[in-house]
Amino acid sequence: MKQLMLGNEAVARGLFEAGCGVASSYPGTPSTEITEEAAKYDEIYCEWAPNEKVAMEVAIGASIGGRRSFCAMKHVGLNVAADPLFTASYTGVNAGLVIAVADDPGMHSSQNEQDSRHYAIASKVPMLEPSDSAECKAFTKRAYELSEQFDTPVILRLSTRIAHSQSLVDVEPRQELPLKPYVKNPQKYVMMPGMAKKKHPVVEKRTCDLTAYAETCDLNVEIMGDTKIGIIANGPSFQYAREAMGDRASYLKLGMVHPLPVEKIRSFASKVETLYVIEELDDVIESHVRALGIPVHGKDLFPLIGEISQNMVKEKLTGETAAVESIGEEIPGRPPVMCAGCPHRGLFYTLSKNKVMVSGDIGCYTLGALAPLAAMDTTVCMGASISGLHGFNKARGEESESRSVAVIGDSTFMHSGMTSLANVAYNASNSTVIILDNSITGMTGHQQNPTTGYNIKGDPAAKISLEKVCEAMGIRRVQVVDPYDLKTCDQVLKEELAAKEPSVIISRRPCALLKYVKYNPPFTVNADKCRGCQSCMKIGCPAISIKNKKAVVDQTQCVGCGLCSSLCAFDAFDKGGNQA
Amino acid sequence: MNQTKSIMIVGVGGQGTLLASRILGHAIIRQGFDVKVSEVHGMSQRGGSVVTYVRFGDRVDSPIVDLGQADVILSFEQLEAARYLPYLKEGGKLITNTQQIDPMPVITGAAAYPQGLIEKMKACGADVLAIDALSLAEEAGSTKAINVVLIGVLSQYMDFKAEVWNEAINECVPKKFLEINQKAFALGASYERG
Predict the structure, then answer these.
(1) DSSP 3-state assignment of A34?
(2) Which among A115, A169, A348, B148 counts the fewest CB atoms within 10 Å?
(3) For chain B (length 194 residues), average pLDDT per consecutive 10?
(4) Which of A164, A165, A324 sits opposite B86 (nearest CB)?
(5) Is A5 helix (H, G, I), strand (E, B) or coil?
């Protein structure tokens, strides 16, 4: 029987069936589940690497070592891994190398909306793009074949709606592959000018060969219906177009999005009256079609921003609109919030109270930017909290150093905070860096990292000490605080801001959602004592609200962390269990 | 032209919508349909508004449900029902749990929780079934079983055999919670629509 599989799960199944032997990734929505699922197959060695660059280099090494290998990342992760990618394009592979990158049109869980197809073009590496889970599996396997046939890494591009949609997949057995021999070959694997100059023409010829492949391969298919409208589309856009137009249009579905075919597109264009390119984000296919001198509609109708949908296609191509009902009044938004008991809350309350400039980073704690805590000034990319703060302080001088901090999670610090901290120590800004150590990679759904003491399978592993890393870099002032202890947090923050040297505060308490974390019974409010002053509302806890001018604790959400109680001047919060 | 059926499951992160969509997906496969189930993971799980799209038929193209396209919306919370009402098809069914969970803008006082939502949704022509799923879940033995209670209610509007639902629940629910969930489903499935 066919199985219902997430696109990401189907990619993992493809890895298994293709005989992949080594996978190394850094978690990032919407790519994370690929490697989590791959780790369930004992035949594939899987690991979480500290960042995407490391992961890709591990995969490159494993490929050279003779095993089919893999790495996965979200779109912005490919920025981090771009360095190895561009040169792996020159070296090519020994055993197949597949790189999955998951874009996030609509920015459901991302800081920008970049289109990874530009990387395939720039690095001259072929890119495949599936449009459902069955294709996720099939294209993963095909990617390995292409990788070995054309001696190149192959990128598999996903987007949120493919990665996080489940559809039906047929499973097949694994193809067991022997370890390929490794033969020392500096002309192929040592990229210094003498060798690289010889490799670049090989890469250009490879693109020509791959273009010839794109002309005839079954990854790019014509589906003919009414020929008044012709649609060229890829990935989820194909699904939206086909649902909207059915047999009222003809389609050229592109499963290989780089390099793009030429004759195949000319031939399709010649068969239809009006040609449209429907693609999310940038006008990559459209530009290619225009360069061939073929008249085409694309971004004149469809947005460069966000996702496309079936209604949008129907409306743009036929003018038909959907009938929509609504209650006709504004519905309050429901933005994500730090969970009840989140260890980040106490620390961000302290920052908010002290009115410091906060140089932020990527993780659950980015939610600290939202009201009522509103304690974040900047968020750019992984690691930028620390380096950005250093720059901010170098620009603004000593006064700024005593009124600003960087905040960065444990996993993000391992990813790219360490080099930034080295810069703070080496180039001596008196910056205060706060590492929010919740003992897990939180936002992506609880992945282990080098500071947690466990590997991807949950088995015990080497545990890097954050304190010792900081000390080894020359940071002499390192203090550890419990973010539930507001008084100490406040005191330590003031001390470190005043210090005339770089310092690190480690705010340490495990994520409240971790299975091993024990909860206290929920607090209750003594309505006689509560004055309705709303001091407890300053922490933005989703379990506390004001009803009839008194605080009320939601008994299903409260985990008994006690932050509200420590803020209450009237002792109105009763510990759970006391009154039973 | 398009025979695809569309169901949306909406609620608040942490309410257990994912299990509901899993059970529904498994039931649909057992009925022999093509199916796509789509949801967004990541940031929205942190107490935010969550939505799962479930689509089935002979061949499903788009993995998402668009405005005016849902045959059924199954809502775990009133405000979320109102938020996603524009996705309901003309003549579609909206099933909502009567529970209210304040979102952060309401908690901070920046916005008010709209009153009389069920009446307002009915007033704009929606076929609404409001049900206190929390009480039924408590009756079944766990407040967490809201999701399976609501799947039980949904089953009244789907032409699937009882054993298909049973098998789907058996497949998706951990053994030690099976009895509670079977009871929760039965309570939902026998709920008088009125």
Answers:
(1) helix
(2) A115
(3) 87 89 95 92 71 96 97 97 96 96 88 95 95 96 94 96 95 94 96 78
(4) A324
(5) strand
